[in-house]
Design goal:
With 435 residues, the protein is α+β, with helices and mostly antiparallel strands. 67% of the residues lie in helices and 10% in strands. The strands form 2 sheets. It has a 5-stranded mixed sheet, with helices on one face. It has a two-stranded antiparallel sheet with strand order 4-5.
Length: 435
């Protein structure tokens, strides 16, 4: 038992590093012969750790240099093991190194607080803290790298990498030398400062990751809006062409009916069939007219009842592409939800848009089935890969925020409700007149 304990005292640092690196690289793409490469890398780390202990020195600078070489070996091992971009590798290296150092410092502080116990008690407490810290960092930081985040900014990553080396290498060696001279209280003070500094850098690393994710989502949303604008133009041409052809067909049916002595009931039935395509809703807004006509065709085909009462003229202050994207995404989400419902009586979508007292209110409701979860006040996509889905609701919020509005999405029983409130911009000079 003593031999095992001494082994972990001498080489526990390597096990901690391997654990932390595993958390941050679990979803990375692995190179060929990965397991052989991994065994070789771990063997190199153990050999270096043995050489480090075999060449003792009282100089903190010499000790710091040895740790710098060790960290360089770890970084090289990541490039050797994984086929990822340099930025992703650097992110994982910094995050894992900080996680190991944070767990080490917290474990040391707790052992000081509970006072020296037996070797077994100290080892159990320390291992428990290391596992807890790694689990916490995995939940709040490491697992958010699942699937990869391309385009991580290089400058802040390099800056945080430099801060990590200062804290984990330079400060650590200086504190061990000068902190021990001041006794246990001074060492505990230095360790507390070291732990807090490490935690701050981890928080900054998390902030970089979140900022990059928001930037990527914003770019994806803008690209989606661009594609929807192109779709609107194509739909406009198609629907105009259909309306022209339907108008001509109605005239031709009446003429052919008289000449060929077709029953009036049959002629009227043909006209009603054509009216499905020719009966376009006139809302007072071209973008909404195109959108409602397009979605009505689809709903008719899928057996969905689409009811709408829309004052499109109240939306003249909005760009046509924004109108098309905003309400198009809302209707598409509703259609996707009701298509999963078997009961025809519940395959219903309702939409109202109206203006009153300088505000536009829009409401879309539909039945839905199955579980529905929310995150950041938006419904979470049910698709397996959320990297490329869920942008419909995000683009709705993006457009509403663009016009200084407010949006709410909530489920009440088996009905999903989307509510939008948009302020109508005041005309130039209106505030002066009302003053």
């Amino acid at each position: 038992m003593t031999a095992i304990y001494n082994f972990f005292i001498d080489f526990g640092f390597i096990f901690e590093l391997v654990l932390s690196f595993a958390l941050f690289t679990f979803f990375f793409g692995r190179r060929k012969l990965f397991w052989l490469r991994l065994i070789a890398c771990i063997a190199c780390l153990f050999a270096f750790s043995w050489l480090r202990d075999a060449t003792p020195s009282d100089s903190p600078w010499w000790q710091a240099l040895k740790y710098m070489v060790l960290y360089a070996t770890c970084l090289g091992s990541l490039f050797f093991l994984f086929g990822e971009s340099a930025r992703n590798i650097l992110f994982a290296f910094i995050g894992a190194s900080l996680t190991q150092h944070c767990a080490f410092k917290l474990g040391d502080l707790v052992r000081y607080v509970i006072a020296p116990q037996t070797d077994i008690v100290n080892a159990v407490v320390y291992c428990g803290i290391v596992i807890a810290v790694n689990l916490f960092i995995y939940i709040f930081l490491a697992r958010r790298r699942q699937g990869g985040f391309e385009g991580l900014p290089l400058t802040p990553i390099l800056a945080l990498g430099g801060a990590m080396l200062v804290v984990c290498v330079l400060f650590q060696q200086l504190f061990e030398v000068y902190g021990e001279d001041g006794g246990l209280p001074m060492y505990a003070l230095f360790s507390s400062f070291d732990f807090i500094a490490t935690l701050i850098i981890l928080c900054l690393l998390y902030a970089v990751l979140q900022s990059n994710r928001m930037r990527q989502e914003s770019r994806m949303t803008e690209h989606l809006l661009y594609l929807q604008q192109a779709q609107m133009e194509a739909s406009k041409e198609t629907i105009n062409l259909i309306n022209i052809k339907c108008h001509d067909l109605k005239k031709m049916i009446g003429t052919f009916g008289e000449k060929m002595h077709i029953e009036k009931d049959e002629v009227e039935e043909l006209r009603r069939a054509i009216n499905i395509y020719d009966g376009a809703v006139k809302t007072g807004n071209e973008a909404l007219d195109i959108l409602i006509a397009e979605k009505s065709f689809f709903c008719q085909e899928k057996g969905i009842q689409f009811n709408c009462i829309v004052d499109g003229g109240s939306l003249q202050f909005m760009k046509t592409s924004d109108i098309y994207s905003l309400f198009g995404n809302a209707i598409d989400n509703a259609i996707e939800a009701v298509c999963k419902i078997e009961d025809p009586a519940r395959r219903i979508i309702g939409m109202t848009v109206k203006g009153s007292r300088g505000m536009i209110t829009a409401h879309v409701e539909n039945y839905f089935t199955g579980p529905l979860r929310f995150a950041q006040d938006l419904p979470v996509t049910t698709k397996a890969d959320d990297r490329y889905h869920g942008f419909g609701t995000r683009s709705i919020r993006y457009i509403v925020n663009k016009y200084g509005g407010w949006v709410s999405m909530k489920a009440e029983g088996d009905i999903f409700n989307l509510n939008i409130l948009l302020p109508v911009p005041k005309a130039p000079g209106e505030e002066v007149k009302s003053a």
